[in-house]
Design brief:
Its EC number is 2.7.1.30. This protein is α+β, with helices and mostly antiparallel strands. It is 34% helix and 21% strand.
């Protein structure tokens, strides 16, 4: 079979949309379709999705992408070898395995309804906020699935009874999708991959299995939980009733881990994905590095049941591209996200305006759920271009904060440098099409930013993992970053060091002003 006759499909299920992309043997997209789905905000700080709508979005995207590829002359029906899956992490679903019906809406990763549960645990447990860090690498936070599951067990009528009967099961979005794709109520597979499991707060990072001590402490029944598998292995075949049937699902990674594979990140290399939030991961190889500077220790990837585990340090930023959406949808300053670059380019600085997008608190490295969004330094001189530029800078400052923490935790030995002895940050995600954003990022970091030719690296990473499991790709091909660098765009810093430092100091002052604002009166 020629390279053009071999295809891998990739399901990319994000926070606001679902995509299905079909790649050929040379990792070129030959067909794709994307569908946005509804975000629900029942109360301030609550964010939910309808799990059934997500299932339907996958179905639509599969069918449309297949139609497009076929219309362009690609014989996908006979050449499709495997399906990969990547997904928004931490988002939590519980459902009935006898009916297939969700017992509540999916609670999204950025939802903060569990704040009171977090505070209670911090007070009761001897280790406080870091009680579980030794086992799972994560602090007690509204971010992680375990706390969302506790809320569901406490608040959803009939759920505990369903758990006792063995009918209620838990999963992140990958688990929910795989269960439905492989048959649902007709013997659907209840599994999760190692990267998604590492974000629940329930998996032991070294044992790579559910941590019994944590489950006992939190009172979470083990029988609700899925089986943990690697990121690259044949999981099961797609069942009847889908636009594609009988094809193996053989790759599964959380979105940020998929981006690491798509970006060919080996030990010492870091990537930053700019989406609804921003997520920076540094591959630390086969060593778990414990952070002393507000980062998370997590799994990077495990590309096969017998493959070694690569770990990572991660800094998670809750609001990045979502701040641009806020300018568009809530303030009406722009009518489309793409307009922000032109608007912000009308000024050469923010005019002393600093915007801290702590809409639901701040994640790494601050971890302040009492923070709220602020815009300071406003004068009569300030116009909407200054505010737009301040929003872009806020994304870049947050990434800078995380990378500085990574440098401190990993040390010089933990970072790979370019031939010019510079640390290169690989970037991806929809927002990276904004050249101004990328230049601001390089300026505030004081080091180069590398944008690949294909910025949608999450879907590509899932395709690589799936293709690896069925022999379509080799690890050498996946991690051949030299060839990819030749096609990349590189943004180099031009900002003077003195001004860079002054701006960073001003940003830190602005961040400190955002603390302790959660109880402001309505």
């Amino acid at each position: 079979m020629s390279d053009q006759e071999v295809f891998i499909g990739s399901i990319d299920q994000g926070t606001t949309s679902t995509r299905f992309i079909i790649y050929d043997r040379l990792a070129r997209a030959v067909g794709s379709h994307q569908v946005e789905f509804t975000q629900f905000y029942p109360q301030a700080g609550w964010v939910e999705h309808d799990p059934m709508e997500i299932i339907e979005s996958v179905r639509i995207c599969m069918a449309k992408a297949l139609d497009k590829a076929t219309a362009d002359g690609h014989n996908v029906d006979s050449g499709l070898k495997a399906i990969g899956l990547t997904n928004q992490r931490e988002t939590t679903v519980v459902w009935s395995k006898s009916t297939g019906i969700p017992l509540y809406n999916a609670i999204v990763w950025m939802d903060v309804r569990t704040s009171s549960i977090c505070r209670k645990l911090e007070k009761e447990l001897p280790g406080g906020r870091t009680h579980f860090v030794e086992s799972c690498g994560l602090p007690i936070s509204t971010y992680f699935s375990a706390l969302k599951l506790l809320w569901l067990l406490d608040n959803v009528e009939g759920l505990n009874e369903a758990v006792k009967k063995g009918d209620a099961i838990f999963g992140t979005i990958d688990t929910w999708l795989i269960w439905n794709l492989t048959g649902g109520v007709e013997n659907g597979l209840h599994v999760t991959d190692i990267s998604n499991a590492s974000r629940t707060m329930l998996m032991n990072l070294k044992a790579l299995d559910w941590d019994k001590s944590t489950l006992d402490t939190l009172g979470i029944p083990a029988k609700m939980l899925p089986k943990i598998i690697s990121n690259s292995e044949i999981i099961g075949n797609i069942a009847k009733g889908w636009p594609i049937t009988g094809i193996p699902i053989s790759g599964c990674l959380g979105d940020q881990h998929a981006a690491m594979v798509g970006q060919s990140c080996r030990k010492g290399e870091a990537k930053s994905t700019y989406g609804t939030g921003a997520f920076i991961l540094l591959n630390t190889g086969e060593e778990v590095i414990k952070s002393n500077h507000g980062l998370l220790s997590t799994v990077a990837y495990k590309l096969g049941p017998k493959a070694p585990v690569n770990y990572a340090l991660e800094g998670s930023i809750a609001i990045a591209g979502a701040a641009v959406q806020w300018l568009r949808d809530s303030l009406g300053i722009i009518s489309s996200a793409s307009e922000i670059e032109e608007l912000a380019s009308k000024v050469t600085s923010t005019g002393g305006v600093y915007f801290v997008p702590a809409f639901n608190g701040l994640f790494a490295p601050w971890w302040r759920d009492d923070a709220r969004g602020i815009c300071i330094g406003i004068t009569r001189f300030t116009n909407k271009s200054h505010i737009a530029r301040a929003v872009l800078e806020s994304m870049c400052f947050q990434v800078k904060d995380v990378l500085e923490s990574m440098h401190k935790d990993a040390g010089k030995k933990g970072e790979a440098k370019s031939e010019g002895t510079e640390f290169l940050l690989r970037v991806d995600g929809g927002a990276t099409v904004n050249n101004l954003l990328m230049q601001i990022q390089a300026d505030l970091l004081g080091s180069p930013v590398v944008r690949p030719a294909d910025i949608e690296t999450t879907a590509l990473g899932a395709a690589y993992a799936a293709g690896l499991a069925v022999g379509v790709y080799t690890q050498d091909e996946i991690f051949a970053s030299g060839e990819k660098m030749k096609k990349a765009s590189i943004f180099k810093p031009v900002l003077e060091e003195k001004l860079r430092k002054k701006k960073a100091d001003s940003w830190c002052r602005a961040v400190s002003r955002s603390f302790d604002l959660a109880d402001l009166s309505l």
